[in-house]
Sequence to fold (144 residues):
Amino acid sequence: VRACGFSFSGDTIMFCTDRQMGYNPSLDIYDIRAGEQMANNAPLLSIPIEGPKVTAAVWGGLDEYIITGHESGEFSQWDVKSGERVRNIKGHNKQINDIQLNKDRTMFVSASKDTNAMLFDADSLDHLKTYKTERPVNSAAISP
Fold:
């Protein structure tokens, strides 16, 4: 498991897996109120991940989508109901190490090996601001 998280409602969890031991990478979503999903390893939704591996992930606003960051520096936004990739952008030039949402989940900050932390709008994935450093950024957070 590369990334995991509880939805804002606390009813669902998600986790992203890597290609390991013959299993293909996926973004899996489970409803924790339905114990048989976990017991039978039968997720509510399983989205196969094509391309670069997922290195970070967070739930978006109102639990409608999940934002994933990839080792290629790309961000993807996944619709939780359909499993469709809604948006995909190139945000960084190197691997994304971390993604953190602000308190109201309208923005997120990303940390990358490209020595930048960047602020994005969570709904549109529009780039808002770049914070440059001299070293790779392992993590970043937004203070209320």
Remarks:
- DSSP finds one helix and twelve strands in the chain.
- The first helix runs from residue 35 to 39.
- The mean pLDDT is 95.
